[in-house]
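Task: fold both queries, return tokens.
Query 1:
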Amino acid sequence: MNAALGRRTRARGFVPAPMISGGVLVNSVGGGISQVATTLYNAAFFAGLRLIAHTPHSFYISRYPMGREATISWGGPELVFQNDWPSPIVMRFSATPTSITVTFYSQRFGRHVATRTGCAYAFVRPVTRYVRDATLPPGRRIVIQSAGGAGFSVDYSRRVYENEELRRDEHFHVRYNAIDEVIAVSGR
């Protein structure tokens, strides 16, 4: 996906939006591109395509299906999938101010996908982390990020069929970190 999109810069029309960096949401030019990556990943997932590389976010974002999501950033992580069916695929993207839609068009070949997502387990509570900021006056503290949701694990699977023949039986495990409280404190 990075090869197709290129580097996200202001000159190319990208704007700042939230992205996860070091476990903290920060504004970054091109942030938010993972909304497109997650939608594209799910389109490839349900089209039964070969999934080569995808990386879930480091913590869970509730607008995405648990486990079944992808983040990208220039230089990695990356989203890569391959059409290994004997017919081309046409991808159509559309967006509104509140939604993104990806539609794949191709021959069906009797393909269908069955998926299952398990329940979240192995929960870990958020903690408070302190980071030093030499620009803060002595004794000063600033909350950079409030504590959020717990970390957890989730498993999901995908079975891809061509008519009644099973082509793929895949199992995925995702471990999300907790959304920790992060406080900047003065010091060097």
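Query 1 returned. Query 2:
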Amino acid sequence: MDIKLLEDFVCLVKLQSFTDAARERSITQSAFSRRIKTLEEWLGTQIINRENNLFELTPQGKLFVQEAKSILEHLYSARKSVREADPFSNKKITIAAQHSIAQTLFINWAKQLEGSLNSGYIRLSSEKLKDCVQLFSKGEVDYMLCFSNNIVSLPVNEKKFYYITVGKEKLIPISAPSIKNPKEAAFTLPGSAKNPVPFIDYTHGSSFGQAVNQIIQDKKHCCFLSRRYENDFSHIIKSMVIENLGLAWLPKSLITSELESGRLHRAGDEQWDIEFDIRLYYHASESIHAKDVLKTSFEMAQEVKQLLSK
């Protein structure tokens, strides 16, 4: 059985709301409900009373929640003991970062930080946003690097966790060069109703996908696009753009050299750009490193901000 099912159930009992629990667990309410149903199927009995409008456990649920809490406590304790037995655990910094940040900003930051690591090391998990949030919220990583703007809401409890803004990023519309005139873009915004522009999009649930869809739907930015492909990852979309399959919004830091060399061109002016903050989330109350590598979360955050501002 997946341990996440136990964590879901304990979270549901604590919040007594499917909506709030799904938000806390960073998944949709329908997916969360299915996971609780899966747990009930595994147990072979109903643990939630669905005949009552108010949240209520069945007698079996009341019995099982105590067992679930005990199982999780033992598992977490065992994990902590094993990690503490690792001779390198006090020298390790763990970070979850969205893929695009891991490929660009993190690499630049790591180069600047290299001299101060001494005998310590960094373990980087490069994930989708929802996976980064889960890793960070469950305490499996010390820090989280992610994109944020006024369009995209992050499923992070900001009463429990803190952040600082350590950088900026822009999504800009990009196209391969025109075959007839390599100094111009093959595809440009806004297109027309008769000739919509081939478009490579992010998946709708991703932070970039939400932001791009918002600007497309904005009445100030009337455009005509024909969605051809969809993918989660900027580097894959970049490869498709280079192959002249359509235009796409790409992180500026990911395509700097291609813009300079003329391998890629802007497909629209700055009114089409989408700005993002890059946030570093940290656990405010925990001091998680030891000896020379040891820093409080706030000190680490400030160091990252200073390095990235150079």
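Both queries returned. Flag for query 2: Residues 59-85 form the longest helix (27 residues).
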